[in-house]
Amino acid sequence: MKNRTVLRRAAIVLLVLVFPAGAYAAGTGVAALSPVPPEHASPPALVLNDLNGDQRSLADFSGKVLLVNFWATWCPPCVKELPSMQAVRNRLAGEPFEVIAVNVGEDFDQVKKFLNLLDAGLDYPVLLDENLVTTKNWKVRALPTTYIIDAQGRARYIATGERDFDAPEVVSMIRALARSEPSDG
């Protein structure tokens, strides 16, 4: 079991080393989110357990704009942006928006212990991708990677590397997607 955890971490570290610019890009905070090409607008399935052991899927958040963030406890840029995701969630409370944090390759105990020590008051869903299947299907090549999914379930934006998700530019993009009708872009 321990060897498998070490192998998972090694694989993720290798991804980060192969794509270092993406993993540590945007260290200044605000950087534009990149549009997702139309041919990649349909996100793969996402069905994972949350920290309560409940199975969650994208369908659970139907009709909402989603910020889907892939992260790990050992990734400094990932940890640094967690509070900004909580801040944007708080700012957009009452609007059709939700944050989902997908932990990559770590088990329940590791993640729960880390979040308890973090003391950042995170109250958005944290899902566990212990076996990396979802991470691979979503073609995550570096951490953190974040997708913005519109209320119709289309991937609209991607960010690789740390971002300030509570920045006015990002909040405006999310609000514009929340106002979009199904026939829009």
Fold and architecture overview:
The protein is of the alpha+beta class. The chain has a single domain, classed as Glutaredoxin. It is built from six helices and eight strands; from the N terminus they run H-H-E-E-E-E-H-E-H-E-H-E-E-H. Helix 3 links the parallel strand 4 and strand 5. The longest helix has 17 residues. The radius of gyration is 15 Å and the shape is globular. About 35% of the residues are buried. About 10% of the residues have low confidence.
Give the arrangement of secondary structure elements.
Blueprint: H1 2-18, H2 20-24, E1 34-35, E2 47-50, E3 55-57, E4 65-71, H3 76-91, E5 97-104, H4 108-118, E6 126-129, H5 133-137, E7 145-149, E8 155-160, H6 168-179
Parallel strand pairs: 4-5, 5-6
Antiparallel strand pairs: 1-8, 2-3, 2-6, 4-7, 7-8
Short description:
With 185 residues, the protein is α+β, with helices and mostly antiparallel strands. The chain has helices at residues 2-18, 20-24, 76-91, 108-118, 133-137, 168-179; strands at residues 34-35, 47-50, 55-57, 65-71, 97-104, 126-129, 145-149, 155-160. It has a single domain (2-179), classed as 3-Layer(aba) Sandwich (Glutaredoxin), CATH 3.40.30.
